[in-house]
């Protein structure tokens, strides 16, 4: 893991950023400043990772959804 982090590059996303034509990082107006979501598709299923909601464990416990 350490080797991977040493070679990682940081990308600041102002609006949208597509990574390897697979992941779409998109800044949205969410629950926290600078919140964003990540969209991707795998095995003909669409997924979204809502990072601003995932910031706090309590949001998972009370099942807040986007």
Describe the structure.
The protein has 66 residues and is α+β, with helices and mostly antiparallel strands. It is built from 2 helices and 4 strands; from the N terminus they run H-E-E-E-E-H. It has one domain (11-61). It is 17% helix and 33% strand.
**How many domains, in number, for the residues?**
1
How many angstroms does the end-to-end distance come to? Answer: 31 Å
Secondary-structure-based class equals alpha+beta
Strand order of the largest sheet: 1-2-3-4
- Give the low-confidence spans: none
Indicate the multimeric state: single chain
Mean pLDDT: 74
Largest sheet: 4 strands, antiparallel
Gist?
The chain is of the alpha+beta class.
Comma- or semicolon-separated keywords:
4 strands, 2 helices, 66 residues, alpha+beta, globular, 4-stranded antiparallel β-sheet
Topology of helices and strands:
Blueprint: H1 2-7, E1 16-19, E2 23-27, E3 36-42, E4 45-50, H2 57-61
Antiparallel strand pairs: 1-2, 2-3, 3-4
